[in-house]
Amino acid sequence: MSVEGRVAIVTGAGGGLGRCHALLLAEHGAKVVVNDLGGGVHGGGQGDAADSVVEEIRSAGGEAIANKASVADRAGAKSMVDDAVSAFGTVDIVVNNAGILRDKSFKKMTLDEWDLVLDVHLNGTAYVTWHAWPIMYDKNYGRVVFTSSVSGIFGSFGQANYGAAKMGMVGLMNNLAREGASHNVRTNCLSPGAATRMTASVPGSTIDPDNPAADNHPGLVSPAVLHLAGEDAPNGRIIQAMRGRFSSNMMYSNKGVDLGTDASIDTLEPRIGDVLDMSVASAGSSFQSSND
After folding, report:
1. Nearest to residue 194, comparing CAs of 224, 162, 213, 216?
2. Which of 4, 8, 2 is nearest to 92 (CA)?
3. Which residues pair with 117 in a beta bridge?
4. What is the mean pLDDT of residues 10-27?
5. Of 127, 137, 162, 252, which one is the catalytic site residue?
6. How many other C-beta atoms lie within 10 A of the C-beta of residue 205?
7. Disulfide check for 96: which of 88, 104, 118, 125 has CB 3.0–4.6 Å away?
């Protein structure tokens, strides 16, 4: 899982998960661009959170610089990559962690609240990765980590915008894992859970993000990021990490039924049980992609 001498960008690294990711990468020898707008979990305001993490890294003998741009801004996303290249000469690792919440049931959610969450989580992830991608692709080395969530992979009440963005990252990962494979650019997803400002903002939460419980500390998630950022990282995989427990999520398909040219509602209905039966299934799709 070596990251010694690698250059990493970690978005949303001013606190919580991102801070722990940045500190661990730096501890293992990576040079880190600590990005954080400095605002709250609802996207407002700007502060010096990135500077504080940079100081932590430097005080421990590591190398880091701060970037305070928004991932949802195309020019801001480019500035993170430009800063990495200017300060450290290249970019090897991108950890897309930045995010905000606008939790409401879909019925009560405004379209502005939908757009904002999609812009930060999905578009922001795409923007930063898009600007770093040519550098990694051309030098035949890159590690990209997307931060997905059980809210998207499995669903959650009141998080339609957040869940759609998080599942969108899985789709983006599936495609980039294929596009980057021949050039040793590997893309994976992290699905984390920890005591952070975001989880503390969920109605009914008793989490204190400034004093996270030892068994729910965001630092317990970061070893997964270190592996996904390392030389032996997998490609196109989802690692779920929470409370020191690590597992994998994967898409499965059953064999299904082939009705051929006789396909109609009359022939499908009697076989719908077989179509929906997942008692025997395997990883991947039962349909061959036209691009394979």
Report:
1. 216
2. 8
3. none
4. 97
5. 162
6. 12
7. 125
Q: Is the pLDDT of residue 284 over 90?
A: no
Mean pLDDT score of the chain: 91
* pLDDT at residue 202, rounded to an integer: 54
Provide the 3-class DSSP secondary structure of residue 14.
coil
Question: What is the rounded CA–CA span in Å between residue 145 and residue 118?
Answer: 17
How many CB atoms within 10 Å of residue 203?
6
Query: Tens digits of per-residue pLDDT, 117-127?
Result: 999 999 999 99
Residues facing 191 on adjacent strands: 240
86 backbone dihedrals φ, ψ, rounded to 5°: -65, -45
pLDDT at 210: 67
Q: How many CB atoms lie within 10 A of CB 163?
A: 23
First to last CA, the chain: 30
Residue 137 appears among annotated catalytic residues = no
Are 130 and 81 in contact by the 8 Å Cβ rule? The answer is no
| Section 167-188 average pLDDT | 98
